[in-house]
Design a protein that fits this description.
It holds the Pfam family Glrx-like. This is Redoxin. There is one protein chain. With about 90 residues, this protein is of the alpha+beta class. It has one domain: Glutaredoxin, CATH 3.40.30. Helices cover about 35% and strands about 20% of the residues. It has a 4-stranded mixed sheet with strand order 2-1-3-4, sandwiched between helices. The longest helix is centred in the middle third of the chain and has 17 residues. The two termini are about 20 Å apart.
């Protein structure tokens, strides 16, 4: 493989971060949290919950999409979290 097309080495799991953005009393957020908890526990990746009702900037940016999952600060998905897709994103 050409040096121009080599992928950067995978970051160690503890250096990754999954952020789940949602709000209380949201059934899709509850479903997403179960998937995020399971996948992150298996991969050894930390995750955090951010509540759009407590952060006006997040509310303005994501209120129509919650739950939203960020992987290392970049939007990975919204509404429904696919367990296999999240796992793949964390292991590549």
């Amino acid at each position: 493989m050409s040096p121009l097309f080599r992928r950067a080495p995978a970051r160690p799991p503890q250096d990754r971060l999954v952020t789940l953005i949602g709000k209380p009393d949201c059934h899709l957020c509850d479903d997403a949290q179960r998937v995020v908890e399971r996948v992150c526990a298996q991969a050894g990746v930390p995750w955090v919950w951010k509540d759009i009702t407590q952060d006006p900037r997040l509310h303005d940016q994501y209120w129509e999409q919650i739950p939203v999952v960020l992987v290392d600060g970049a939007q990975h998905t919204f509404w429904r979290v696919n367990e296999d897709r999240l796992r793949k994103a964390l292991t590549e």
